[in-house]
Write a structure and sequence with these properties.
Nucleotidyltransferase, domain 5, 17 helices, single chain, Helix Hairpins, Serum Albumin, Chain A, Domain 1, alpha/beta, elongated
Length: about 375
């Protein structure tokens, strides 16, 4: 004999072959949202186990509607079929089982709110926001410093000798006048500074100092965010942090949309993450596919000889995938992961000291295609 198990927002139901209700296990009224969330996460809830156990003794085959795999159930009688006969009957006759469409809609609305809150509470979401904030702050600081350098040069052009932007802003922020800046860092300026007779308006100087203070505070905020990202990475992805560093690791997580999603990606996807434009160009025009994306920022990839970068990037992507899966699923820490990667990268460099004929040809083809694209753009502009 066969029986059919299905569920609604209220709980689990079992029907016989004639659509007669033979058993039901309802959720506690205060746990409905939590139970439905667990089912969506492909977990077997207590009520489902109870109803399977109850019908197992009387029926030879249990056909169940489920989003889980057959191997998740420890019962040989179970067959998964979605939808099944009992589920169709339940959905066509909600009223008979004390269900109405308004109530169902309200429960699913609350479930959606619960899922949003749960997702926003996850640590990697905060990490993603933090690393994106750092990128935006970097972009803003770059533009603001360009402006303050141009502006402050009207008052003190010798300041251009200070190339470090953080030092430049800190000097202006903490020292109100030219004389105080020279006192604070005398070695940075020539012994003789030409003074213009006409002195600057104090209001102009005050505005420039306030502007520099604002940039300085932004730089401090960036440092705080950087420390926060490092702590978060140490907490949720220690293997990835050790292998690629906090900043690059957080960027990979952000690009994937979360740590678990990154763990699900194959290493070939990880290798070219961030190079989507080049990939689409390859698919559209037949240009050579990209060899690396974000992972080019890793010192071992960026610092490698050009003909070895692809090999090292491929090997690194594979190790990133393993590191992230270890962080997500096994929660074990491999303290030798970076050393292992470094040795493998050095071995690749050692075994390939010179480019092969194939790699030379590819580089020539690449430079030719770049030139032809540039010519094409120039011709379009002329037209």
């Amino acid at each position: 004999m066969e029986c059919y198990i299905t569920y609604s927002v209220k709980g689990f139901y079992a029907f016989n072959d004639e659509n007669e209700l033979i058993c039901e296990k309802l959720f506690p009224s205060n746990e409905i949202i939590q139970k439905l969330a667990e089912i969506n996460d492909k977990k077997i809830v207590e009520e489902e186990l109870e109803i399977i156990e109850e019908v197992s003794s009387d029926y030879d085959e249990i056909i169940i509607e489920s989003n889980k795999r057959l191997s998740d159930y420890d019962n040989e009688k179970i067959t998964i079929k979605t939808p099944n006969k009992g589920g169709d009957y339940l959905r066509e006759n909600y009223e008979k089982f004390g269900l109405d469409n308004e109530e169902i809609t309200e429960i699913y609305r609350n479930l959606a709110i619960y899922n949003i809150k749960k997702a926003s509470a996850s640590e990697d979401k905060h990490l993603i926001q933090a690393i994106n904030s750092i990128d935006e702050i970097d972009e803003s600081i770059s533009k603001l410093i360009e402006r303050i350098r141009e502006w402050y040069a009207l008052y003190f052009p010798e300041m251009d000798t200070i190339k470090n932007n953080e030092t430049y802003i800190k000097l202006i922020s903490q020292n109100k006048t030219k004389d105080k800046i020279i006192e604070a860092k005398p070695d940075a300026f020539p012994s003789e500074i030409i003074d213009i007779d006409e002195d600057i308006d104090p209001n102009d100087l005050e505005i420039m100092n306030n502007y520099a203070n604002a940039i300085y505070e932004l730089q401090k905020s960036r440092k705080n965010l950087e420390e926060y990202v490092d702590l978060k990475m140490e907490s949720i992805a220690p293997n990835l942090r050790l292998l690629v560093g906090s900043s690059l690791g957080a960027k990979l997580i952000s690009h994937a949309g979360g740590l678990k999603r990154l763990a699900m990606y194959p290493s070939s996807t990880v290798q070219i993450m961030g190079a989507e434009k080049a990939l689409f160009r390859h698919l559209k025009s037949g240009d050579r596919p990209p060899k690396y994306g974000l992972i080019y920022q890793h010192p071992q990839v960026r610092g490698a000889k050009w003909w070895n970068r692809g090999k090292i990037a491929r090997m690194l992507a594979g190790m990133i995938s393993l590191a992230v899966r270890r962080d997500v699923f096994t929660k074990t820490f491999d303290e030798n992961i970076f050393e292992e990667f470094k040795l493998k990268a050095e071995e690749i460099e050692k075994n390939n000291p010179f480019p092969t004929k194939t790699t030379k040809k590819r580089k020539e083809e690449k430079s030719k295609s770049k030139k032809s694209r540039k010519k094409g753009k120039k011709n379009k502009k002329r037209r």
